[in-house]
Specification:
heterodimer; A: about 80 residues; mainly alpha; Non-ribosomal Peptide Synthetase Peptidyl Carrier Protein, Chain A; B: about 280 residues; Glycerol-3-phosphate (1)-acyltransferase; 7-stranded mixed sheet
């Protein structure tokens, strides 16, 4: 998977699951502050990303994630390990 | 600031009743709670009885506030709270008296309380003895504890505004209450609280009492069926629907500026003053 593909899938989840307006989804957008996700939302998102990649995501891998771009990077690394 | 006898009395009464919460609570914690504990073997029945004793004490407290003319307290639809079971109670949060009025009107109420009060000399015995839930539990643990109490038939109070509302602002509602209601699959009882003129609100010292006696009003609103929000929706979407519903409800009920707030009060006075000049 390329970074673009990951970004597209992630943008899909954010609009469907968390009703984020598509125009707000940029690489710099912060999940909690800008996109109004909460900690339970983050857990649900990790489950979705595990389904996407078929890999297990450890909570500590997601601890440092702040922005949409961070999510894309960490999923990309995970997928191409 | 003109000091008439009624206003001085209300200032004194406010101080008296504020200190009475801490002192009276501690007094109960060292007298009533131990007696209940001695007479009740089953720990869950024990907590129910202690919560019921607090309900009675707060009822007396509210009656005394009214009888001594410190403030008026008006409860609309109170009989529905008396029979409420296993519901999440949500309310807007204009003043310090809100939680007291709700417990006074509702038997079987559980609260989530700031963890700092477990170290506070005046409150630690009361909050510990009543078995209230601490807000510093791990999120999963707190949700599990709330769900357990709700399913056991207790009602749980949450203020979705998170903290007392600064008069005249429209607060952003936190989503935690909605996630909890969906997890516990419990009904949500909506309350609206107003206080006019405002007293004991955020950013106003307790001793600054208004010229007119304040009237607190607690109005029991709809009992929301959580199934209506979860129906066909995943958790995250259902929670957002519930929050949006409540947000609209309070907007319609209280208006943008929230009725009876200091800012409106100032506006009103401004208009009156302007009128008399003209």
């Amino acid at each position: 998977m390329t970074r673009d593909e990951i970004h597209t899938s992630l943008a899909g989840y954010l609009t469907e699951m968390f009703e984020v307006a598509p125009e707000n989804i940029t690489a710099e957008a912060r999940l909690y502050e800008d996109l109004d996700l909460d900690s339970i939302d983050a857990v649900d998102l990790v489950v979705k990303l595990q389904d996407l990649t078929g890999r297990k995501i450890k909570p500590e891998q997601f601890k440092t994630v702040r922005t949409v771009g961070d999510v894309v990077d960490s999923v990309y690394e995970l997928f191409n390990e | 600031m003109r000091l008439d006898p009624g206003r001085l009395w209300r200032g004194f009464g406010t101080a008296l009743f504020l200190s009475l919460i801490g002192l009276g609570g501690t007094l109960m914690a060292v007298t009533v709670f131990p007696v209940v504990n001695l007479l009740t073997r089953d720990p869950s029945v024990r907590q129910r009885r202690i919560l019921y004793a607090m309900h009675l004490a707060f009822r007396l407290y509210c009656r005394a506030i009214t009888a001594l003319r410190v403030a008026d307290i008006d409860i609309k639809g109170g009989e529905r709270l008396r029979h409420l079971q296993g519901a999440l109670i949500v309310a807007n949060h204009p003043s310090l008296l809100d939680v007291v009025m709700i417990i006074a009107a509702t038997p079987r109420v559980q609260c989530i309380v700031k963890a700092g009060l477990w170290r506070h000399p005046l409150y630690r015995l009361t909050v510990g003895g009543a078995g209230f839930l601490r807000n510093d539990l791990e999120p999963e643990e707190l949700v599990a504890a709330c769900t357990r109490d709700l399913h056991a038939g207790l009602n749980l109070i949450i203020f979705p505004e998170g903290t007392r509302t600064i008069p005249g602002t429209r607060p952003k509602l936190h989503r935690g209450f909605a996630n909890l209601a969906i997890t516990a699959a419990c009904p949500v009882q909506v309350l609206t609280i107003t206080c006019d003129p405002p007293v004991l609100h955020k950013g106003n010292p307790w001793w600054r009492v208004p010229e007119k006696r304040s009237r607190f009003c607690l109005e029991v609103g709809e009992l929301l069926d959580i199934g209506h929000f979860t129906d066909g929706h995943i958790r995250s979407v259902a929670a957002r629907r519930l929050v949006a519903h409540l947000d609209n409800f309070y907007l319609e009920k209280l208006g943008h500026g929230h009725v009876g707030t200091a800012i409106e009060d100032i506006d009103r006075r401004g208009v009156e003053a302007g009128g008399s000049v003209a």
